Amino acid sequence: MKDLKQSRRAWEEEYRHVNWGGPRPISGVEEALAPGSLVLDAGCGNGRYLLPLSKNFDVVGTDISVNALLKAGQYLEKGGSQAGCVASSITHLPFADNSFDAIICYGVLQHLFENERLLAVKELGRVLRTEGFLFFEVFGTDDMRFGGEELEKNTFCRKNGVIYHYFTEEELKLLFRVFDIKEIKSTRTEKRFRGEIHTRHHIKGIVQS
Q1: What CATH number does the domain containing 70 carry?
Q2: In this protein, which residues make up the domain named Methyltransferase type (predicted)?
Q3: What is the pTM of this model?
Q4: What range defines the domain where residue 41 resides?
């Protein structure tokens, strides 16, 4: 099983090649939070959400990859925005208890083993203020990429060394059981790949501390 150092190396290499891809929509976050809220982008990568978040909120991004954070900083500068960028594992966040009004965690929990997912959710809850919102998104088990070398149940390793876990809605309800679950919802879309139609399966959720 991969350790933290191996995971970090895999992501450093991944972000040598990952392109920007443009900012991602954050409409659901904007509707739920007051302008100026202090927001943590946990696992911010190269800043696809960090940049749009910085337009309306005080935001801090963390990521295990220094290469990702360097790219995020460059995109923020080009976009005329500012945000804190901190190198950190999501399982050990360098922030005090009750630090943030809200947290977004998009496309991150799916790259962790079971014990790491439990630690990460505990850490996210620790740094989230009372009645604060946590927004998350993960891959579901119906996704086209499901499969490969299985290391744990529904958890696989790609050739690049990156771990992928695929969730069910029931599993997420159990993982976030100590929170007030506002929404957990699956979205399935069709994607054409090499002339064939495949399914992309994402699960989004909103929970409150």
Answers
A1: 3.40.50.150
A2: 40-136
A3: 0.94
A4: 4-208
How many helices (H) does the chain have, and how many strands (E)?
A: 6, 10
What tokens were used for 49?
């959400």
Cβ atoms of residues 150 and 114 within 8 Å: no
Distance CA 118, CA 109 (A): 10
Q: How many domains does the chain have?
A: 1
Mind listing the pLDDT tens digit for each residue in 110-135?
Answer: 999 999 999 999 999 999 999 999 99
| Through-space distance between the first and last CA atoms of the chain, rounded to whole angstroms | 32
92 Cα distance to chain centroid: 15
> DSSP letter string over 30-93?
HHHS-TT-EEEEET-TTTTTHHHHHTTSEEEEEES-HHHHHHHHHHHHHTT---EEEE--TTS-
